[in-house]
């Protein structure tokens, strides 16, 4: 688990309470006839309270970290799925182009491709948070190129330029497939033993 101010405060409270309790318990010479009166119980109870507060903070922060990690994994899984869906749907468009009119191409892009690409783009920051800015840039550079060519295909279909539609969709497939491959590579590397994330 990474360092956080709450963890630091928890550790300080825990060890401060432990050390203070130990000091209080040995501060005075033991009274043989009444050994329990040797310890100043008010101070000792306060020290125990400080240490207990530290333990509570540490447990709370660890629980919060587990919840955040689960949410982070869910976000990565969702973004990964959206990118794969976008790649799959644009590839299906490329396969169907010969049997589609320009109006059908427009409808397909608007209703099948654009929604999943928007979902991916709106949630893309989880990639940088999980894998670092370098990995984020590698994926988003390819995705942005694919998105740009898909927009060009839409414009060409609106103007009736069939050849440009085919060319642009082909480029969109290539760039989106590369983006998906980059993402798959990150997932594979993270699951390999001994691999660490590049946070740069």
Give the topology, please.
Layout: H1 5-25, H2 41-96, H3 102-122, H4 125-131, H5 133-159, H6 162-191
Explain what this protein looks like in three dimensions:
With 200 residues, this protein is an all-alpha fold. It has 2 domains: 9-62; 70-191, Up-down Bundle (Four Helix Bundle (Hemerythrin (Met), subunit A)), CATH 1.20.120. 81% of the residues lie in helices and 0% in strands. The protein contains 6 helices and no strands. The longest helix is centred in the middle third of the chain and has 56 residues, at 41-96. The protein starts with a helix and ends in a 9-residue tail after the last helix. The model has no long low-confidence stretch (mean pLDDT 82).
């Amino acid at each position: 688990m990474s360092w956080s101010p709450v963890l630091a405060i928890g550790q300080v409270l825990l060890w401060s309470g432990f050390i203070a309790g130990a000091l209080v318990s040995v501060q005075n010479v033991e009274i043989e006839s009444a050994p329990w009166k040797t310890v100043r119980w008010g101070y000792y109870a306060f020290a125990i309270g400080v240490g207990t507060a530290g333990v509570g903070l540490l447990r709370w922060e660890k629980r919060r970290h587990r919840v955040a990690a689960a949410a982070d994994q869910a976000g990565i899984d969702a973004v990964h799925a959206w990118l794969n869906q976008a790649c799959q749907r644009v590839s299906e468009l490329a396969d169907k182009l010969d049997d589609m009119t320009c109006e059908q191409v427009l409808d397909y892009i608007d209703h099948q491709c654009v929604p999943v690409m928007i979902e991916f783009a709106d949630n893309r920051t989880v990639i940088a948070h999980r894998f670092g800015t370098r990995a984020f840039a590698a994926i988003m550079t390819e995705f942005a190129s694919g998105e740009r060519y898909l927009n060009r295909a839409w414009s060409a279909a609106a103007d009736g330029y069939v050849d440009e539609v085919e060319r642009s969709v082909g480029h969109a497939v290539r760039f989106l497939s590369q983006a998906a491959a980059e993402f798959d590579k990150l997932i594979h590397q993270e699951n390999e033993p001994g691999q660490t994330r590049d946070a740069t």
